[in-house]
Specification:
321 residues, alpha+beta, 11 helices
Amino acid sequence: MSALTHLDGDGRARMVDVGAKAVTARTATATGRLITRADVIALVRADNLPKADVLATARIAGISGAKKTSELIPLCHPIALTSVKVDFELTDDAILIRATAKTTGQTGVEMEALTAVAVAGLTLHDMIKAVDASATLTDVRLDEKTGGKHGHWTRNGIIEVVPRVGTAAVIVASTAGAVGEREDTTGPKIAAWFESHGYTVDAVTIVADADIAGELARVLATSPAVIITTGGTGMSPSDHTPEATSALLDRELPGVSEAIRLRGLAVTPKAALSRGVAGTANDTVIVNLPGSPGGVKDGLAVLDDLLEHLVAQVEGKGSHE
């Protein structure tokens, strides 16, 4: 069983630090139902209750509740919601509630979706209690979520994302390159290297250092077999590529990153300053290379001898000798 993230080592409640998590597009869908009598459902359909506009009022309440989740649930992070949608379906004896919340950030929106359902359901109860005080709000639950390290989850389990065999992507972290102030030579070089090894390169994207986490998450969601990044691995205040990568990894490959550093050290002692990491995320291989042409050359030389065997192992085809 996984440890409870909202407790520290001494068992005290805490707000989880999500600062190192990747910025990704995240969604969550929750459902619930308000059980009542058939004659009450008929009144709701006809909009003929003492408190009118029942569903419209409950919808607005649910959206407002989602926006106030961090004020209601003590350890939830305040997040910028990009969308909250609340829908209803009337059956013979219940009002079904469905809420979907969306954001682009470092933490999920499960609680926002659940809060939307709960507040909408309570509002429905308030609207019909004059005719059915025994109505029951029940089955409030999370049904689905996407985004973040664990990808797509449903109540039936995690939906496995299978990398597309023989595909690759290249991400260049360069603030100057992203605004056209510096010509990038490393991205095309990596793309050509991939093609020489039989890979189809989806794209070479150039982003500012501050945007590397979001771009990594976006590219990972497209499921290439391999992603190579270049740049942002040093100690400058804007260098965040290793942190953005580590936040996504399921398994690290420290030997690969150490071999790349060792290869560079044979040329320059500055190679020791590279903090690049390597590993797998959803079975996609991710490798950080330095931003210098020489660092890229050294890194690709290491991968020349490793990549085919590594990818085969990840796909379950390679030997473990």
